[in-house]
Amino acid sequence: MKQFTLEEKNQVLENPFIHIHRKLDVLLNIGKLLMECGANTNRIIEEMLKAATFMGIPHDYLNIHISYTTIMVNLLHKERSITVFRKTPVHIPNMAMINAVSKLTWRAFERHYSLTTYERLIAKLDTTIPTYPNWIKGLACALGSAGLAYLYSGDIIAFIVTIICSSIGYFTRTLSGRLGLNEYVGIALGGFGAMISAYAFYSHVNNESLLYVLVCCTLFMIPGVPLINCVIDIINNHILSGMTRAIRTLLIVGSMTLGMAMALYFSPAPAFNFVDIKPHVISIEQVIGSFTAAAAFAVLFNAPVRLLVSIGIGGVLCVCIRNILSVELGFSTPGATFIGAAIMSIIFVKVSTWLKTSSTIIIVPSAIALMPGILYYRFLFDMLHINALNDASLILMIQNGVTGTFTTIAIAIGVAIPNVLAQKYLQKLKEQRMTELLATRHINDGQ
């Protein structure tokens, strides 16, 4: 391999057109990794522009277009134009990967990597970031759903039964994927497996608390990260990406609801869509349930092990604030949820500096405990049975849909509130840091 002198290495990173195709390939790799791992569009563009700065490409030369399944980059300067793109077919949330991409670029600035080194390390990320084994993810899904059942006032029996039923649903969906079935068919089968087992327990065990198993056993399939990202994208004017995420979320929830409806078609359960999930008192069970749900679902999003306790505490913080405002002060669900998410995200921006991680990695999983996924599938479940609804049920269906939508918007805005309030300030700090690090690039020249 050719060895570059220090002068040649610096020239490669300061002249935008030297090895331009390799540089654009690095930008596409970064965008692809982030999109497939659940980053919102603003975050993807920010990381790509940061990498472009490191590689000496002025931002005004670049036009970046992000859609849910394609990353496109155009470099335009005078009469020269180069356009490249890459498809992003797989979408699995991976917080560790998002964190690793950001850290690697900052490390490249600090250690003055050559283009070859930076290119090689970016390419290796896909195989070097560890992921949890499938059985641990299955257990985490079950614990997360059980935590929500406990949060909604279920007892310890409901907690244990929810673990069993959610595990059945998770591994049914996983087996469907390994058999090559369509993703949405697998989700429907997973919902069917979880619900039919939950109904079997409910029918044979005399315990009214098992209604919460029917309500919560499929909640692990609610796509919380895409749901939050779709709202963040839309409010930041990335309409195409945001709407595509929203449609995918609707397809997932709809498939899950269809599977549940199939399970209950011949043996209809009591109207579990009337089960009260709103808090009426503040209790220790809510703390345990919210901690378990946030930390367990963070495993599903591949958050690093060292951050799971912090994420669980974040879930407790935002849920407790929401419940206090709802129970003691009579706030609406969306209003209380917004304040809970906003306070948690503001606090965790500072906490992230102590933990030496990106704030997104701990804020988004923490907010998952607030997700109104149960309202969405109640809404869709009633839609499937709309011909059998009376006036009261029809009104409740509309209330579930409207409350779920506004609550999701409240979570997304609350999560994004630090950037909304201090976007220019935070961007200025990042640009200042990059300028300072670039200024040290020649500090050892001639030595």
Structure explained in plain terms:
By secondary structure, this protein is mainly alpha-helical. It has two domains: 12-130, no CATH class; 134-428, no CATH class. The chain has helices spanning 6-14, 20-36, 41-54, 95-111, 115-128, 134-151, 156-178, 183-204, 211-216, 224-235, 239-265, 284-300, 308-328, 333-355, 359-367, 373-384, 391-439, and strands at 62-66, 70-77, 80-87. The chain has a three-stranded antiparallel beta sheet, covered by helices on one side. Strand 2 (70-77) and strand 3 form a beta hairpin. Helix 12 crosses helix 13 and helix 16 runs antiparallel to helix 17 (391-439). The two termini are 24 Å apart. Residues 286-420 form the Threonine/Serine exporter ThrE domain. InterPro entries: ThrE-like_N, ThrE_2, ThrE_Dicarb/AminoAcid_Exp.
